[in-house]
Structures are given as C-alpha cells and as structure tokens.
Design brief:
- This protein is mainly α.
- The chain folds into 2 domains: 131 residues, no CATH class; 224 residues, no CATH class.
- 44% of the residues lie in helices and 5% in strands.
- It contains 13 helices and 4 strands.
- A 4-stranded mixed sheet has the order 1-2-3-4.
- A hairpin with a 7-residue loop joins strand 1 and strand 2.
- Helix 3 packs across helix 5.
- It is elongated and about 80 Å long.
Length: 395
C-alpha cells in the first residue's frame, strides 16, 4: 500500500502495503475503481492483454511502488456495485480511505493480485473477486472503527433511580445496557431492597448473553460462543438462572427475590414490549468493529460507542427483524438445562410472576446451523451500507 499517511484527523491503522509491484495494468485498475468502476481484476486483465492500461483521469490514488491489498481493492469494487445498484456514490474521500486502509486483524496481511510479479515470500496472489466476505469484513470494520473513534464523547445517560441502583447486584444478560437484574427500593427500611429477575426462555437469554459479550469486547461469533460455553452439562454464569437466584437470595434474602416472566410487571424498568429481538448480523458487525475500536479508545468508551452510536444506526439500516434462532445441538442442551432449572427453582420456593415454565423454550424444531457465508454476506452488506450512508463522518 501507499506509504503516504492518512489525512489528519483519521485515527487510522498503519497500512503495510502488499508486497508486489503494481505496474501500469494494476495501477490503471486501481484508478478505475477509485472512479467508480465495478470491473473485476480478472476482466480487467482480459480486457488489457498487453499488460498496460491507462486510467480515465481519476488521478493517482496510491503510491508509485506499492498497491493496496486485494482485500481493500475488492471492498472498493463491491462498494461501487452497491452504490450503483442503489443510486448512491462512493465519493473520492471514501474511496481513498478504503485504498489506504490497513487490516486490523493480526495475521491477515494484504494479499497480492494474481498475474503480477510476486515477491519471493509472503502470501500467495489471489483473484480479489474470489475472496470470501470474511476477508473483506476486517477492512470495513477498521474503517467504521476509525469513524467512531473520531466522534465527540457522548453525554452520560441519566436513568431512573431504580436503574442506577441495579448496578449493586450482578447484572444478567442483556446487550442494550438496561440490565436483567433489577433492583427496586422497598418501602420499609428494614429490608431496603428486593431483587426482580426479569426472565424469559433460555434460548432468548442465550442470544442476549452472547450479544452482551459481543458489544463489550467479545471476540467469538454466536456459534463459536455457544460451542465454547454451552454443553449438556455446562452453562455460563450469565445463563445459570438457578445460581443467579441463589446468589441474590444470599444477598437480600430468599423472600426478597422474585422471578418475573412478564415484562408488564416491571413497566418502569423493562417496558411493556419486552426485549427487542437480536439481529445476528447487526451484533456480529458491532463485535467485529469492536476489535479495532478497542485499540483506539478505552474499553468503556468502546462499549458506549458501539451501543449508543453504532447499534442504533445498524438497526435503522437492517429494518424490522425477527428473533435469532439457536441452532442444534445447543438448542437441545438449553432445553434440558431449562427443564432441570424449573424443577430446582420450584423446590427453592422463590416468588414467581407469570409461569416458571416459560423458562423452557418452545418445542419448535431447532434451527439448522446457519451457513457462515450467508451470515457474513449480510454483515458485509450492512457494513457497506453504513460506509455509504455516513457522509463526511456524520453519525
């Protein structure tokens, strides 16, 4: 890539550049991409068999010696495709950012193009159009992270007293920051607090537990998280409702702990509509953006930027979504854990609002494992829509 540093004000990654000499053919293609072309590298080569081509006047966009990697070039080409199909434009500023972008993931070098003089060492040359979405997402995520890190700090959120007090007990899984474990002020000073555990079925709890971790710096995708946390004999702390109730009973007394399965019982804290559905590609993009963002800002600022800046924009772009299903075999494991937990909680004698059996997910067949390529394609499209819709860094 070009050794030229990014423009002032861009907290960018240091581009390393792909280790191959561009020549007129490749440089011409890069300039065409910067001008809005959607031509693939393979077709560009076929159209210029002599090995040299001059661009249409877009001007130099990279240094004379090094080219951007195949990942950056293909991301720009796909941005051009999406922009052309939706009546938008990439614009010179965004095109330049993409071409100069680094790859924030360690162990992912810039990939050289096929058909050029390759270096004696380094990764094998590739056809950019053949790259999977997972190779392009780190570049897009890094660009979004740079934009987020450059934003002015957000003012603190003022919440009702009950929500502020919720921090005194261990919160359960929720990705939007409102907390599952809700602490109320009781009328009597003898027992100043009681704990309401706002619960739902264990499948939904699992999705929200993963989403919570993803927004707070987690590195695992949903299925990888399930694989590492859930088995027939193991649950993470965030899904162990029996343990959560017991710990709070030790703190405030068993009589002061209530298991609530109906959000309408907690209108001031949860809201009558219940939990919003988790759109997996939206949260997964936030997770991937969080990795380079964590290098640029503090952990607390990263979580704030993801939850209050990025996620609202992504929800707008994604539109209405349904719940995220839990794939097999983890759906079956969670069902078994939920059935055992119901029996244990009944014997413990906690107060219950609603029906304790609602902890058990529905008996609908579990969803088949998602095809990673399909999910990655949706996530990349969200990232490209965000880059195209964020004009001049405005959020």
């Amino acid at each position: 890539m070009s050794p030229t540093p990014p423009a002032t004000g861009e907290p960018a990654h240091s581009p390393t550049g792909s280790a191959h000499h561009g020549g007129g053919l490749a440089t011409g293609w890069v300039e065409e991409l910067a001008a809005g072309s959607v031509t693939t590298w393979t077709r560009w080569q076929q159209a210029h068999p002599s090995g040299a081509a001059s661009a249409s006047g877009a001007g130099p966009v990279v240094g004379p010696q090094y080219l951007p990697g195949a990942q950056q070039l293909e991301l720009l080409r796909r941005l051009n495709e999406v922009a052309a199909a939706t009546g938008r434009t990439v614009g010179p500023a965004l095109a330049d950012r993409v071409l100069r972008a680094g790859i924030p993931d360690r162990g992912r070098p810039d990939l050289p193009l096929t058909g050029l003089h390759a270096a004696a060492f380094g990764p094998e040359p590739v056809r950019p159009e053949a790259l999977p979405e997972r190779d392009l997402l780190p570049v897009a995520a890094g660009l979004i992270a740079e934009s987020l890190a450059s934003l002015a700090p957000l003012p603190p959120v003022r919440r009702p007293l009950a929500r502020r007090l919720a921090g005194r007990v261990r919160p359960g899984p929720t990705w939007d920051g409102d907390g599952w474990v809700l602490l109320h002020r009781a009328p009597a000073r003898v027992n100043p607090y009681r704990v309401d555990l706002a619960l739902t079925d264990l499948h939904t709890l699992a999705v929200h537990a993963w989403a919570t971790r993803a927004v707070r710096g987690g590195v695992l995708g949903f299925e990888d998280w399930l694989r590492s946390r859930v088995s027939a004999d193991r649950l993470p702390t965030s899904l162990d409702v029996v343990g959560m109730a017991a710990r709070n009973a030790e703190r405030v007394g068993r009589a002061q702990v209530t298991l609530s399965f109906e959000p309408r019982h907690l209108p001031d804290l949860v809201g009558g509509a219940g939990l919003p559905p988790v759109h997996l590609p939206t949260i997964d993009l936030a997770r991937q953006v969080g990795r380079p963002l964590g290098v640029l800002v503090s952990d607390a600022t990263r979580t704030t930027l993801l939850s209050r800046r990025l996620l609202p924009r992504l929800r707008q772009l994604a539109g209405p979504t349904g719940p995220t299903p839990v794939p097999a075999p983890w759906a079956g494991h969670l069902n078994e854990h939920a059935e055992r937990s119901v029996g244990l909680l009944q014997r413990a004698g906690y107060a219950v609002r609603g029906r304790l059996e609602l902890l058990v997910p529905s008996t609908a067949p579990p969803a088949p494992p998602a095809r990673p390529a399909d999910s990655e394609l949706t996530t990349l499209r969200l990232a490209m829509d965000l880059l195209l819709d964020t004009k001049d860094g405005a959020w």
